[in-house]
Amino acid sequence: MKTNKTLLNAMLALSLVAIATGTPVNTIAAESSSLAIRTEVAGSVQDVVQSLSKMVADNGMMVMGELHQGKVLEMTGYKGESESIFVGNPTMGKKLFSVDPGAGLVVPVRINVYRNSDGKTVVSYLPPSRLLGDFGNPKLTKLAAMLDKSLGSMTGMLPQ
Question: Which CATH superfamily is domain 35-156 in?
């Protein structure tokens, strides 16, 4: 329980820093810890999101939501590209939620695609196994490792 509160507090702190500085949360997370997986890829943010969305569908998953952070933050004067898609599989979700409904904190998995300060497109996400591992349930961790493998495979197929 304490680990989950610590993780939640860390995520809240990162969100507040992101709001205050206009920096994408995943960039802050990657710079402050090794938790986030980040991969520089070729193509525009929009092209990469479209490619990922197709790969997700081709791999038996689905895009369950989108967040156009760059567009939303334009009202604050922030100039940057950042798109998030929320990826999941209802069958896997059922398995995860059957083990622990708290898995909803982690799934669907959020994949953030953004343009970094060097002008490169970056794909980043927090591996489900690292997050669900904090729940202390080996069944959750095993299922999450399957998600890690799928996510790694998809992001690894993007042109670099």
Answer: TT1751-like domain (3.30.310.70)
